[in-house]
Amino acid sequence: MKTIFVNIKELLQIREPGTVKLKGDEMSILPVLENAFLLTEDEMIIDFGEMRYADLSVADTVIDLSGRTVLPTWCDSHTHLVYAGNREQEFVDRINGLSYEEIASKGGGILNSARKLQETSEYDLYEQARLRLTNVMKMGTGAIEIKSGYGLTLEAELKILRVIKRLKEEFPVTVKATFLGAHAVPDAFKNNREGYIDHIIREMLPAIADEKLADYVDIFCEKGYFTVENMEKLLSAASEFGLQGKVHVNQFNIIGAISSAVTHKALSVDHLEVLDDADISALSESETMPVALPLCSFFISIPYTPARKIIEAGLPLALATDFNPGTAPSGNMNLVVATACIKMKMTPEEAINAATINAAYAMGISRTHGSITKGKSASFIITKEIPSYGYLPYDFGNLNIEDVYIAGKKI
Ligand code: NIG
Ligand code: FE
After folding, report:
1. DSSP 321
2. Is 60 exposed, middle or buried (0-12, 13-18, 19+ CB in 10 A)?
3. Whole-angstrom Cα distance, residue 273 to residue 279?
């Protein structure tokens, strides 16, 4: 079934096949076609161009988008969308003066979410996740990475990964699953971090690989959580199962994890609220994508990832939500883009590139997603009538989305 969308005011992020990521100055350019058409066949983009070249006779359906802007759906390359319950009490505790680290050291934080999740059935967990995923799709997310990590036992980690698998099967959105068993040291391994890492490597990884439940592996490399040595051991073991790393690093402290992640060929290094020159030079000449999570900085009041420093060093940068109950209880990529412009001084062009093509790269799907390209997924956002695309982050409090298509299906 062919559908032609006509009279598009601005068709954004048009790219030739082969563009897989953008770095440095390249990020400041967002290719736009004015007064355009877009032709899709089932789940794929098959053509686009200026209106004067549109052939309406080839299509089964013609949709008039006069005054509307079209852009590829967001790729959210870092989420923890499968979690149980919420942590609004910790939110209030933080307002009253406790820090994220203080709450965690009192048994709150990740361990709090893990307790809740262990008590929740797979059915209920799916139901909670299904609602969140439906909601983010309506907000324009067409591809999403989802991590485990609130289980911390083999049984509970498998429960999360099976829920992710079911979401993958039942939703049109492209889903990548990441195994984050090394999110925090569970009480059963208190004061025995190394023992827990061994347990992950010997018991969890093989079981997860056996059921083919993960596409990537992650670890929270941070003081009080896991060390650089733990990460090296885990990434080496994971590579034996064909799993590449996407790692949490440099959220609160610089502990030398970035150069090590690069050496171990991590696909992405995420957070980077703190970053030094050695980290920047480790990332130069690497294939690893730096990922910023501005809603986490916003929600727990920590520094924003230094986007200007990263881009001016000639590096690429991707943006994601970090959707999770503790540090970013929102999966709204529109707000991520706006926050990146407002707080990180990224231009709308840079932020849109970071949330589409570069974010697609950070989850290993930039050959099929992240731009309006012939042969890529027919996943795109149709905006309301807006004066220009810069209005999207400017009007940050409103969702200027009229329709979302994911893999050719109207959501
Ligand atoms: O990405 N930093 C580690 N993990 C999550 C938050 C975990 C939590 O507080 O539940 C993050 O921010
Ligand atoms: Fe995270």
Report:
1. -
2. exposed
3. 12
Question: Does residue 38 sit in helix, strand or coil?
Answer: strand
The rounded distance, in Å, linking the Cα atoms of 129 and 146 is: 10
Q: Could you state, in order of their start, the residue ranges of all structural domains in the chain?
A: 2-72+369-410, 75-362
Within 288-385, where are the H helices? 294-300, 307-312, 333-344, 348-355, 357-362
Please answer whether residues 344 and 292 qualify as being in contact, where contact means their C-beta atoms are separated by less than 8 angstroms: yes
75-362 fold: TIM Barrel (3.20.20)
User: Which residues are CB-neighbours of 166 under 8 A, at least 6 positions away?
Assistant: 126
Distance CA 112, CA 106 (A): 10
Tell me, what amino acid is at 401?
A: I
Query: Is residue 326 in contact with ligand 1, taking CB distance under 6 Å?
Result: yes
Q: Could you report the per-residue pLDDT of 122-180, keeping only the tens digit for each? A: 999 999 999 999 999 999 999 999 999 999 999 999 999 999 999 999 999 999 999 99
d(CA 340, CA 343): 6
Atom of ligand 1 nearest to the CA of 271: 1
Q: How far is the CA of 208 from the centre of ligand 2 (A)?
A: 20
The C-alpha atoms of residue 223 and residue 252 are separated, in whole angstroms, by 8
**Spatial CB neighbours of 235, under 8 Å, sequence gap ≥ 6:** 217, 219, 245, 247, 261, 264, 266
Residue 224, Cβ density class (10 Å: 0-12 exposed, 13-18 middle, ≥19 buried): middle
Confirm or reject: Cβ of 324 under 6 Å from ligand 1.
Answer: yes
Q: Would you say residue 26 has pLDDT above 90?
A: yes
Please name the fold of domain 2-72+369-410.
Answer: Urease, subunit C; domain 1 (2.30.40)
pTM over 0.70: yes
